[in-house]
Write a structure and sequence with these properties.
Number of strands: 16
Oligomer: single chain
Largest sheet: 8 strands, mixed
Number of domains: 2
Helix content: 10-25%
CATH architecture of the largest domain: 4-Layer Sandwich
CATH topology of the largest domain: Double-stranded beta-helix
Radius of gyration: 18 Å
Length: 283
């Protein structure tokens, strides 16, 4: 059922997760009572889509700050003029679409910055240009995936830690070695495999492309991680967001993994601005 507060409509987009927020202009300060309702909605739906926004880069930064302190991006992902904005695009230096650039997007399931001691909390992705076909952002609800496991299996997994590693991630997915600076900034870190969601107290699996191996079980490689990722990304746990220009999508990295769906990058243009807020240490 939709929720209406001061002419602002919050309406579910699927049975699994996600709701759209209509009637809120993020260029303006968010009243305290509306912010409380949005925080409740994020804890309930995990993905919020703010429709019909019109934001400059600086306005997106100010809107993001209302939800928490800003997090920084990896150096290579920063906008050339405003480092706190990450430009997500398939456009080349001549402003032309290129499939080779589109193919470099985050096509692997992941949780933003899970390789950090305190991973990002919320990600904000704002759509300026979107493909007519493809290019959806897909999400998997890791709380539902964990709770669908037998109780004995849940207890077993809750006792484990998973090592998230930026150097291993870029080696496997980008086919390069991490720089000395990257290794110093983001050494491998053990995170709880079953992470407690602060907003609800429920547990969800904490996986994604940065997950490297189970602590104490290095010889097993990624076997258990791959098994759990396949389980978690079943269709019954998923939502795919079909973008509209003016959508600002906000999601909770502590209980979701996500990826970008493929699209014809030579035919269609895609341009988005991304900001993130700092998160707590996983428990």
């Amino acid at each position: 059922m939709p929720d209406i507060l001061d002419d602002i409509l919050i309406r579910p987009l699927s049975d699994v997760m996600a709701a759209e927020v209509v009637g809120l202009d993020l260029r303006e300060p968010i009243p305290a009572d509306v912010m409380t309702r949005l925080e409740t909605a994020l804890n309930q739906y995990h993905v919020l889509c703010f429709r019909n926004q019109s934001l400059s880069k600086l306005e997106q930064i100010e809107a993001t700050k209302q939800f928490g302190a800003l997090d920084v991006h990896v150096q290579s992902n920063r906008s050339s003029d405003i480092p706190l904005i990450h430009i997500v695009t398939n456009l080349d230096e001549n402003n032309q679409p290129r499939q080779t650039i589109a193919a470099k997007g985050s096509v692997h399931w992941h949780s933003d910055k899970s390789y950090r001691h305190a991973p990002s909390h919320a990600t904000f992705l704002y759509a300026l240009e979107v493909p007519e076909e493809g290019g959806e952002t897909e999400f998997a609800n890791m709380i539902l995936a964990f709770e669908a496991l037998p109780s004995a299996r849940q207890q077993e997994l809750a006792a484990l830690k998973v090592v998230h590693s930026w150097p291993d991630s870029v080696r496997r997915t980008n086919k390069r070695e991490a720089t000395d600076e990257e290794k110093a900034n983001w050494p491998p870190i053990a995170q709880p495999l079953a992470r407690t969601h602060i907003g609800s107290g429920r547990k969800g699996l904490f996986l994604g492309q940065h997950a490297s191996y189970i602590e104490g079980r290095e010889a097993d490689g990624r076997g258990l991680i791959d098994e759990l990722e396949a389980w978690s990304t079943q269709q019954r746990f998923r939502y795919a967001h079909k973008w509209r220009v003016g959508d600002l999508l906000m999601w909770d990295n502590s209980c979701l993994i996500h990826r970008a769906a493929a699209f014809d990058g030579d035919r269609y243009r895609r341009l988005m601005h991304r900001t993130v807020t700092q998160g707590p240490v996983p428990r």
